Amino acid sequence: MDDPRLTPARPDLAAKYLEGKVKAERFVTGEEFEISDVIAPVRERPSSEAPLLTQALKGERVTIYDRDGEGFAWGQLNSDGYVGWLPDRALTKPAAAPTHKVTAIRTFAFPGPSIKLRPAETLVMGALVGVIREDGPFAVTREGWYLPRQHLGGIDRFVGDFVAVAERFVGTPYLWGGKSSFGIDCSGLVQVALNAAGTGCPRDSDMQQESLGRLLGLSESSRLERGDLMFWKGHVAIVRDAGTIVHANAHHMATAIENTREAIARIKAAGSEIIAIKRLG
């Protein structure tokens, strides 16, 4: 059965590309939009009270298949294929392809060439922008924002160590469905870190367990290497070294570095055993 998280299909409507594969009353081609908000919530239902599934960041593209006329649009993120409801106000017609991405965990967008000005926005790691020119230490975007050049990188610039990216999020509050330094969950941390290193990564921990890396025997937990991924049911952690992990978790309500053995024991006491260890590369 197709995963509903990745399949834009409902009984009344489905994506045109699914015609012949799923049942629906009608099939639509969909229209591509760009995320204009800094962070757009992707929710389970067309309501601001509905559970948060994931988030879309500025500059991402999304294919919209339905709009409810009450402020919500239903579609599929082009980056990881996630399906859900987004606020209509967060969507705009696609502009020119972005040229740069934010590489700092957060950065201010100033309305002019001075860090003394009140920031117009706060952008997060992975946000995509179009730079039209440089002005001293700033990159000027098509919105007229002035961003510190050292907080940006070219679209094709990637880091070598995704674990180091995850470590930068230590102290970030835990947020179910979050994927930014304002709030992040366990699989969001893995996705953001791997994307920064140029590795495509699905959104949820079960998808990551299924698709990333090669499986190690659980007996190999004593020979963990930096970058290995440890999975429990509904949770994933990143191995830093032989003795510690970094993970966004609800126990600390934050991204934290934790002793591996102590974390395994703590989570086991709460009723969950390790179900898989995966090695990337």
Automatic annotation (TrEMBL):
Domain SH3b: 30-95
GO biological process, one term: proteolysis
All copies of domain NlpC/P60, residue ranges: 156-281
One Pfam family from the record: SH3_16
Domain of life: Bacteria
Key words, A-Z: Hydrolase, Protease, Thiol protease
GO molecular function: cysteine-type peptidase activity
Similarity field: Belongs to the peptidase C40 family.
Protein name: SH3 domain-containing protein
Species of origin: Bradyrhizobium erythrophlei
